[in-house]
Design brief:
The chain is mainly β. Helix content is about 10%, strand content about 35%. Strands 3, 4, 5, 6, 9, 10 and 11 form a seven-stranded mixed β-sheet that branches. Strands 2-1-7-8-12 form a five-stranded antiparallel β-sheet, with no helix packed on it. Strand 9 (about 125-135) and strand 10 form a beta hairpin. The longest helix has 9 residues, at about 85-95.
Protein backbone atom coordinates (compact mmCIF):
# COMPACT_ATOMS: atom_id res chain seq x y z
CA UNK A 1 0.00 0.00 0.00
CA UNK A 2 0.96 3.66 -0.03
CA UNK A 3 -0.55 5.50 2.91
CA UNK A 4 1.80 8.49 3.32
CA UNK A 5 4.05 10.35 0.89
CA UNK A 6 5.79 13.66 0.25
CA UNK A 7 5.48 16.34 -2.43
CA UNK A 8 8.34 18.87 -2.47
CA UNK A 9 9.39 20.29 -5.80
CA UNK A 10 9.58 23.49 -7.78
CA UNK A 11 7.30 24.59 -10.56
CA UNK A 12 10.18 24.41 -13.03
CA UNK A 13 10.81 20.78 -12.08
CA UNK A 14 7.19 19.90 -12.80
CA UNK A 15 7.17 21.75 -16.11
CA UNK A 16 10.35 19.99 -17.22
CA UNK A 17 9.07 16.54 -16.25
CA UNK A 18 5.43 16.71 -17.36
CA UNK A 19 5.48 19.46 -20.01
CA UNK A 20 2.75 21.36 -18.20
CA UNK A 21 0.78 23.83 -20.33
CA UNK A 22 -0.64 26.25 -17.78
CA UNK A 23 0.25 29.28 -15.70
CA UNK A 24 2.62 28.78 -12.78
CA UNK A 25 1.24 28.00 -9.32
CA UNK A 26 2.62 28.54 -5.84
CA UNK A 27 3.79 25.23 -4.40
CA UNK A 28 4.32 24.51 -0.72
CA UNK A 29 6.48 21.51 0.27
CA UNK A 30 4.60 18.77 2.13
CA UNK A 31 6.33 16.07 4.15
CA UNK A 32 3.54 13.89 5.51
CA UNK A 33 0.56 13.68 3.15
CA UNK A 34 -2.26 11.49 4.48
CA UNK A 35 -5.40 10.08 2.83
CA UNK A 36 -8.46 12.35 2.44
CA UNK A 37 -6.27 15.48 2.20
CA UNK A 38 -5.68 17.27 -1.12
CA UNK A 39 -2.78 16.24 -3.34
CA UNK A 40 -1.19 17.46 -6.59
CA UNK A 41 -2.13 15.42 -9.64
CA UNK A 42 -1.23 15.66 -13.33
CA UNK A 43 -4.00 15.10 -15.87
CA UNK A 44 -4.43 15.36 -19.63
CA UNK A 45 -7.28 17.51 -20.97
CA UNK A 46 -7.23 17.45 -24.75
CA UNK A 47 -3.84 18.77 -25.80
CA UNK A 48 -3.14 20.28 -22.37
CA UNK A 49 -1.25 18.74 -19.47
CA UNK A 50 -2.38 20.31 -16.22
CA UNK A 51 -1.53 20.20 -12.53
CA UNK A 52 -4.62 20.14 -10.31
CA UNK A 53 -5.46 19.48 -6.67
CA UNK A 54 -7.69 16.55 -5.75
CA UNK A 55 -8.88 14.73 -2.67
CA UNK A 56 -6.74 11.65 -1.97
CA UNK A 57 -9.26 8.81 -1.90
CA UNK A 58 -11.24 8.27 -5.10
CA UNK A 59 -14.99 8.78 -5.06
CA UNK A 60 -16.55 7.47 -8.31
CA UNK A 61 -19.01 9.67 -10.17
CA UNK A 62 -21.89 7.27 -9.46
CA UNK A 63 -21.49 7.19 -5.66
CA UNK A 64 -24.87 7.99 -4.04
CA UNK A 65 -23.94 8.07 -0.35
CA UNK A 66 -21.82 10.51 1.64
CA UNK A 67 -18.04 10.70 1.67
CA UNK A 68 -18.10 9.37 5.24
CA UNK A 69 -19.66 6.17 3.92
CA UNK A 70 -17.07 5.72 1.19
CA UNK A 71 -14.79 2.69 1.73
CA UNK A 72 -11.01 3.09 1.71
CA UNK A 73 -10.04 4.08 -1.84
CA UNK A 74 -6.70 5.88 -1.48
CA UNK A 75 -5.04 2.84 -3.10
CA UNK A 76 -6.19 0.61 -5.97
CA UNK A 77 -4.65 -2.82 -6.53
CA UNK A 78 -2.97 -3.26 -9.93
CA UNK A 79 -4.31 -6.80 -10.21
CA UNK A 80 -7.98 -5.79 -9.98
CA UNK A 81 -8.12 -2.09 -10.88
CA UNK A 82 -9.36 -2.64 -14.45
CA UNK A 83 -12.38 -4.67 -13.34
CA UNK A 84 -13.31 -3.54 -9.84
CA UNK A 85 -16.49 -1.41 -10.00
CA UNK A 86 -15.06 1.30 -7.74
CA UNK A 87 -12.21 2.01 -10.19
CA UNK A 88 -13.26 0.44 -13.50
CA UNK A 89 -14.66 3.54 -15.20
CA UNK A 90 -11.79 5.76 -14.07
CA UNK A 91 -9.26 3.21 -15.30
CA UNK A 92 -10.89 3.32 -18.70
CA UNK A 93 -11.40 7.08 -18.96
CA UNK A 94 -9.61 9.13 -16.28
CA UNK A 95 -5.95 8.42 -15.65
CA UNK A 96 -3.53 10.68 -13.80
CA UNK A 97 0.04 10.90 -12.57
CA UNK A 98 0.80 11.79 -8.98
CA UNK A 99 4.18 13.49 -8.49
CA UNK A 100 6.02 12.50 -5.32
CA UNK A 101 9.40 13.13 -3.78
CA UNK A 102 9.15 9.87 -1.87
CA UNK A 103 6.83 7.77 0.26
CA UNK A 104 6.76 6.10 3.66
CA UNK A 105 6.30 2.46 4.51
CA UNK A 106 6.36 0.66 7.86
CA UNK A 107 8.48 -2.35 8.86
CA UNK A 108 7.45 -4.61 11.73
CA UNK A 109 10.20 -4.55 14.37
CA UNK A 110 10.50 -6.17 17.84
CA UNK A 111 9.34 -2.90 19.43
CA UNK A 112 6.54 -2.26 16.93
CA UNK A 113 6.25 -0.87 13.41
CA UNK A 114 8.93 1.56 12.27
CA UNK A 115 8.63 3.97 9.30
CA UNK A 116 11.07 4.06 6.40
CA UNK A 117 11.33 6.69 3.69
CA UNK A 118 11.68 5.51 0.08
CA UNK A 119 12.76 7.84 -2.71
CA UNK A 120 14.51 7.89 -6.10
CA UNK A 121 18.16 6.87 -5.95
CA UNK A 122 19.09 9.85 -8.15
CA UNK A 123 16.88 12.28 -6.13
CA UNK A 124 14.53 12.78 -9.09
CA UNK A 125 10.75 12.99 -8.77
CA UNK A 126 8.69 9.81 -8.70
CA UNK A 127 5.51 9.61 -10.77
CA UNK A 128 2.85 7.32 -9.31
CA UNK A 129 0.26 5.82 -11.63
CA UNK A 130 -3.16 7.06 -10.55
CA UNK A 131 -6.82 7.39 -11.43
CA UNK A 132 -9.20 10.28 -10.84
CA UNK A 133 -12.90 11.00 -10.94
CA UNK A 134 -15.35 13.85 -10.38
CA UNK A 135 -18.35 13.45 -8.09
CA UNK A 136 -21.28 15.68 -7.20
CA UNK A 137 -22.02 15.59 -3.48
CA UNK A 138 -25.76 14.70 -3.18
CA UNK A 139 -26.54 17.12 -0.35
CA UNK A 140 -24.91 20.21 -1.88
CA UNK A 141 -24.25 19.25 -5.53
CA UNK A 142 -20.70 20.45 -4.81
CA UNK A 143 -18.25 19.04 -7.35
CA UNK A 144 -15.33 17.12 -5.83
CA UNK A 145 -12.38 15.73 -7.75
CA UNK A 146 -10.57 12.82 -6.15
CA UNK A 147 -7.74 10.42 -6.98
CA UNK A 148 -6.20 7.10 -6.03
CA UNK A 149 -2.68 5.68 -6.23
CA UNK A 150 -2.30 2.28 -7.90
CA UNK A 151 -0.18 -0.21 -5.94
CA UNK A 152 1.48 -3.45 -6.99
CA UNK A 153 3.79 -6.11 -5.55
CA UNK A 154 6.91 -4.75 -3.88
CA UNK A 155 10.24 -5.11 -5.63
CA UNK A 156 13.09 -6.96 -3.89
CA UNK A 157 14.41 -3.80 -2.24
CA UNK A 158 11.16 -2.57 -0.70
CA UNK A 159 9.86 -6.07 0.11
CA UNK A 160 12.20 -5.89 3.12
CA UNK A 161 9.73 -3.35 4.52
CA UNK A 162 6.32 -4.15 3.00
CA UNK A 163 4.83 -6.46 0.38
CA UNK A 164 3.24 -3.67 -1.70
CA UNK A 165 4.48 -0.49 -3.36
CA UNK A 166 3.05 2.28 -5.58
CA UNK A 167 3.36 1.82 -9.34
CA UNK A 168 6.08 4.21 -10.50
CA UNK A 169 6.00 5.17 -14.18
CA UNK A 170 8.96 6.37 -16.26
CA UNK A 171 8.66 9.53 -18.39
CA UNK A 172 8.53 7.41 -21.55
CA UNK A 173 5.29 5.87 -20.23
CA UNK A 174 3.46 9.10 -19.34
CA UNK A 175 1.69 9.79 -22.63
CA UNK A 176 0.41 6.24 -23.11
CA UNK A 177 -0.79 6.06 -19.51
CA UNK A 178 -2.64 9.37 -19.52
CA UNK A 179 -4.24 8.70 -22.91
CA UNK A 180 -5.38 5.20 -21.97
CA UNK A 181 -3.28 3.52 -24.64
CA UNK A 182 -1.42 1.42 -22.09
CA UNK A 183 -3.14 -1.06 -19.81
CA UNK A 184 -2.45 -3.26 -16.77
CA UNK A 185 0.77 -4.51 -18.36
CA UNK A 186 2.61 -1.36 -17.19
CA UNK A 187 1.51 -1.71 -13.56
CA UNK A 188 4.71 -3.44 -12.44
CA UNK A 189 7.18 -3.01 -9.55
CA UNK A 190 9.90 -0.41 -10.07
CA UNK A 191 13.42 -1.71 -10.81
CA UNK A 192 15.41 -2.20 -7.60
CA UNK A 193 18.26 0.06 -8.70
CA UNK A 194 15.99 3.10 -9.09
CA UNK A 195 15.13 3.49 -5.39
CA UNK A 196 16.77 3.94 -1.98
CA UNK A 197 15.37 3.86 1.55
CA UNK A 198 16.25 4.63 5.16
CA UNK A 199 14.57 4.62 8.59
CA UNK A 200 12.94 7.84 9.81
CA UNK A 201 11.30 9.11 12.98
CA UNK A 202 8.06 7.64 14.27
CA UNK A 203 6.75 11.19 14.31
CA UNK A 204 5.56 10.35 10.79
CA UNK A 205 2.77 8.39 12.49
CA UNK A 206 1.06 11.69 13.36
CA UNK A 207 -0.98 13.46 10.68
CA UNK A 208 -0.65 17.10 11.79
CA UNK A 209 3.01 17.73 10.91
CA UNK A 210 2.89 18.00 7.12
CA UNK A 211 5.34 20.93 7.09
CA UNK A 212 8.11 19.25 9.12
CA UNK A 213 11.03 18.62 6.76
CA UNK A 214 12.92 16.73 9.47
CA UNK A 215 10.52 13.81 9.04
CA UNK A 216 12.51 12.49 6.09
CA UNK A 217 15.91 12.69 7.81
CA UNK A 218 17.55 9.29 8.41
CA UNK A 219 17.88 7.98 11.94
CA UNK A 220 19.45 4.91 13.54
CA UNK A 221 17.19 2.07 14.68
CA UNK A 222 17.86 -0.88 16.95
CA UNK A 223 17.52 -4.25 15.26
Amino acid sequence: MCGRFTQRYTWNELVALYRLTMAASNLEPRFNIAPTTDIDTVISRGDRIELTRMRWGLCPWWWEKSLKELPSTFNARAETVAGRPMFRDAFKNRRCLIPASGYYEWKTMPDGKHPYYISARDSSLLSFAGLWDEWAEPATVRSIRSATIIVTDANTLTAQIHNRMPVILAPAQFEAWLSGKSGPEVLKPAPNDTLRMWPVSRRVNKVDNDNDQKLIEPIAVLR
